[in-house]
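Holo model, flavin-adenine dinucleotide. Inputs:
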Amino acid sequence: MADAVILDNVQLSSGIFRMTVRSESGGLPGQFYMLRAWSTSPLLSRPISIFDIEGDQLHFLYQTAGEGTRLLSQLRAGDRIGLEGPFGNGFPAASGKIALAGGGIGIAPLYYALKHLPQAEVYLGFSREPYLVAEFERLSSRVTVDIGGYITDQIDLTAYDQVWVCGPEPMMKAMQRKNEAAGAAGKVFVSLENRMACGIGACLVCSTKTSGGRRKACADGPVFPVEEVVFGG
Ligand SMILES: Cc1cc2nc3c(=O)[nH]c(=O)nc-3n(C[C@H](O)[C@H](O)[C@H](O)COP(=O)(O)OP(=O)(O)OC[C@H]3O[C@@H](n4cnc5c(N)ncnc54)[C@H](O)[C@@H]3O)c2cc1C
Ligand code: FES
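Output:
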């Protein structure tokens, strides 16, 4: 595992942090890294999406969920972190008019995607206090924000050729229902956040049921056409 120097690790909101590390490993929108800031416990590294890349600076946006992300949040500038990646397929080749839809910390992979697609329209949903909205608005003139409701209600699938989604499972299921109702295929793509262990397709921890059989979220995904995903499977 390569290690990298942390340049910054700032709290943006309650439980929400942005970490910047020096790394030239790069990556594509929708890809992720396996991060590790401990030796033996927790056992596994933690998958975190690429939030942004600026030259040799790699940015991650993360929410504290348990022990691993809590340890990440305690790191300071000058500390070192273990880094493996970039992994995963990333978002698909962009085609036509695109919407990016994020729920909560699911906005993390969409910022770097938006940098590549400045014409994209953006939907950001938060259950409580929003964060980074101004940063998205600097890149796109079409940012819709919902706080406390269902951002998916605001997305008209017929207005887009592709919709890229990342958020909690209920949000992705809602997009799947909308997609089914519209009879669409190959339009809505979701980035899954399954638990992972190896990150490279070797352990099956991230195995996901799809219409085409079991797939590895780390290596075959994390981005899948929504109609292929069997949620809860
Ligand atoms: C490809 C990918 C990209 C991701 N990108 C980001 C990101 O950019 N920012 C970010 O904050 N998080 C991201 N995640 C989720 C992040 O990896 C988990 O929140 C983290 O691993 C939790 O580790 P922990 O040790 O803090 O919590 P744990 O102690 O492992 O778990 C704490 C709680 O969170 C639940 N949990 C743990 N992992 C997940 C998960 N993957 N999905 C749903 N619930 C979970 C557990 O069941 C438990 O209730 C991503 C996940 C994947 C697979
Ligand atoms: S995390 Fe090991 S196969 Fe996906």
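The helical segments are 67-73, 108-116, 133-139, 169-182. The CA atoms of residues 47 and 220 lie 15 Å apart.
Archived with the compound record.
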